[in-house]
Amino acid sequence: MKLIDIFLMFCVDFHYVKLVTGKPINTTVTLQPEHPFVGGNITLTCSSTIQRWPEAYKTSHLSYQFHGNTRGSTVNNKLTLHALTKADKGTRIQCQAIDDLGKVSNMSNTVTLDPYYGPDNVIVEPAVTIINVTEGTALGPIYCIATCNPRCIYNWEQKWTGGFNPFPNQYISNQGRGVNVPAIHRSQTGTYRCRVDHSTGSVHKTKDISVNVQYSPKITDIWFSSDIQKNRVRTPATFIFNEEENVKMTLRVESNPDSQITFKSSLLNIQHINKYNRYTYYTSNLPSLKCEDSGNFSIQAINGIPYADTRTVNLKIWCKPRNATAESGTIGAQIGSIENIVLHVISFPKPTVRWKRVTGFTWKIEKERYDYRHKIYSKIRIRSEVDFGAYGINICNLLGCIVENITLKPQDKPEAPQNVSVVTITFRSVNLSWIAGFNGGLEQTFTVQFKTINNDKWNVLNVHINDVMTGSTIYYTLDQLRPDTSYQVTVVSTNLQGQRNTSLEFKTEVEPILFSRAPPNSASISHLMVGLLCGIPPLLVVFILLVYIGRRNKYSKSDLKEKNVKSEKSAEYTTIQRNNPTFTDAYSTLQSPTGTKLASKSIKDRTDS
């Protein structure tokens, strides 16, 4: 304070003392805390000083006024703002002090509010909770974004056993905000965490994202077991079991995601039994398999990631012999022949074969393309009729036996018809008969072929007859023959093996001439009828001629005149039609006068006759 401002005058008149003073000075405003956070409170304190002379004469009282604040509560020299917001950023606050004499200090210093906040709105881009990535491909970039005042500090961590550890720096980019792994490995599967710290270090937030590294499946082990073979066989090259066994297969597969298992191109109903250390164990009952299914089986694990893993195992499925097949169970044969007997049989393991009837021949066995299929063959010699009939074949292996039968029956061309003869004969027909011979073991049919001796053309007639028995007599009639004519006839018996025939010749009888004597009365009646029939036509002709002559004389003049007119018109018409190209010559000829005359002459000739 200047000395002039504190000059005091004392007057003793009437015991009165007068005080001389100046306005408040050194007004300042401070805030606590110095760096408040959004949501917190802040207190601003206004301070000022004042001097009076004499110093201890009387205490001064100051009041305070804050400027620039639109809210908050003031108590004495303190202004408190509650629940700061981001909107408070930039608010400028000053204060002034006022003494009890009403003197106002100068404006204090200015305090600008800048509340801290964050990290807020922490997000990870891409905005997903899990990222599926194929092993060997790039992961990222994954970005972490947050809002802070002042700046945010970013750190990436990966979850390992026991907690989160810092992610290697070589994969961090963009001032710690991004993660980019050029070729990710399955071991890098897990939870990735972005930790955002406020620059003061007092506040942090996190955001997690799961990274699922997928890779193609790999079948590491295969076990087979059955209700008979309890001990599991691990990854066998060949597994042998019977058709009746229920076989279970267990797989250990390294796969992410889990695999579907196909067995011989068919999807299996798989059960997950456990999952340990990236390995998944699957178990399934194999489908019902037959002996014919023996061979190499492909077991494939597929999970949608290139590439599927395929393992091959050889399964040998044993069965007792079955399906012994030949071209025919019945074989046609001839006496004196040797018949080759060939069958194909399913048997695993290889069968043994023997005849149940003495043949003098043994069986030979050959494996075909597959281990379970075999060709067996032997021979039978037909010396006489007793060698025909059924032959049993005993086929066995370790699991059982079956018996198959082959039947040999005679098979040849039919015998020729026997005793072909003429039963009756007339001038128009002949009745034949013959005895049916042996049919050769097959159904036989008959045809009759005949022709005249002097003709080369044969007529063929089928004989329709059912259930022909050997030795039965067959009758057949040929009719509509020529009288007094020599014929050659052949009776043919036919089956699938061929035909045989027997021939004969015969001659039809002479056609008889019939004479009949009539009674006297009938003769006279016949003569009268003949006379009437012969006389009526001439009388009728004479009558017609008389009528015609009379009519002709009556109309001769008028007809002549009319005929001349018509002739002129006809000639004119003929000329016109001949000049018309749309008419044919034949039509023109019919219309010509010459043609008309010829037609008339023809009619006349017929009338005269």
UniProtKB/TrEMBL annotation:
Keyword flag Membrane: yes
Pinpoint the Ig-like domain residues: 126-210
Q: What is its main location?
A: membrane
The taxonomy runs:
Eukaryota, Metazoa, Spiralia, Lophotrochozoa, Mollusca
Q: Does the keyword Translocase apply?
A: no
Topology versus the membrane: Single-pass type I membrane protein
Entry-linked InterPro entries: Cell_adhesion_signaling, FN3_dom, FN3_sf, Ig-like_dom, Ig-like_dom_sf, Ig-like_fold, Ig/MHC_CS
**Compositionally biased residues, Polar residues:** 583-599
Chain positions covered by the region annotation Disordered = 583-609
Please give an example of a GO cellular component term from this record: cell-cell junction
What are the entry keywords? Disulfide bond, Glycoprotein, Immunoglobulin domain, Membrane, Signal, Transmembrane, Transmembrane helix
Under the GO molecular function aspect, what terms does this record hold?
Answer: cell adhesion molecule binding
Q: Note the superkingdom of the native organism.
A: Eukaryota
Q: Which residues form the signal peptide?
A: 1-22
Q: What is this protein called?
A: Uncharacterized protein
Location of this chain's protein in the cell: Membrane
Give GO BP annotations, semicolon-separated.
cell-cell adhesion
Segments crossing the lipid bilayer: 528-549
Please list the residue ranges annotated as the Fibronectin type-III domain: 416-513
What PROSITE patterns does this protein's entry cite?
FN3, IG_LIKE, IG_MHC
